[in-house]
């Protein structure tokens, strides 16, 4: 056994449930802090961005969402209310 090296298994990001998603949070979140929400999204394989772009796949709406909502709507980005988002990811 002293000649055996145990290697940590690296999880491929494509194995994670939100792989390929780029998420933007807007407005005030009530379920969790924004940092907690971002961390959770990253752990599930998503990329988290601060602004909406053509690469954004999901916009999560908190209370008092601003101009990010308008831009996401124009770009055809999937828009989810905060409650819907947390139901989705907590089922993962």
Low-confidence stretches: none
Helix content: 25-40%
Q: Which shape, going by the Cα principal axes?
A: elongated
Report the sheet-strand fraction. 15-25%
Q: What's the SSE pattern? A: EHEEHEH
Strand order of the largest sheet: 2-1-3-4
Radius of gyration over all CA atoms, rounded: 16 Å
Average of the residue pLDDT scores: 88
Oligomer: single chain
Distance between the termini: 37 Å
Kindly state the number of beta strands: 4
Largest sheet data: 4 strands, parallel
What structural class is derived from the secondary structure elements? Answer: alpha/beta
Q: How many helices?
A: 3
What does this structure look like?
- It contains 3 helices and 4 strands, in the order βαββαβα.
- The longest helix is centred in the middle third of the chain and has 10 residues, at 34-43.
- It is of the alpha/beta class.
- Helices cover 30% and strands 17% of the residues.
- The protein has a 4-stranded parallel sheet with strand order 2-1-3-4, sandwiched between helices.
């Amino acid at each position: 056994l002293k000649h055996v090296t145990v290697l940590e298994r690296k999880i491929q990001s494509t194995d994670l449930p939100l792989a390929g998603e780029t998420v933007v949070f807007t407005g005030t979140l009530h379920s969790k802090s924004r940092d907690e929400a971002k961390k959770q999204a990253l752990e599930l394989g998503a990329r988290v961005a601060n602004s909406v772009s053509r690469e954004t796949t999901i916009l999560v709406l908190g209370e008092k969402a601003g101009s990010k909502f308008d831009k996401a709507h124009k770009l055809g980005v999937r828009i989810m209310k905060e409650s819907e988002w947390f139901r989705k990811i907590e089922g993962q």
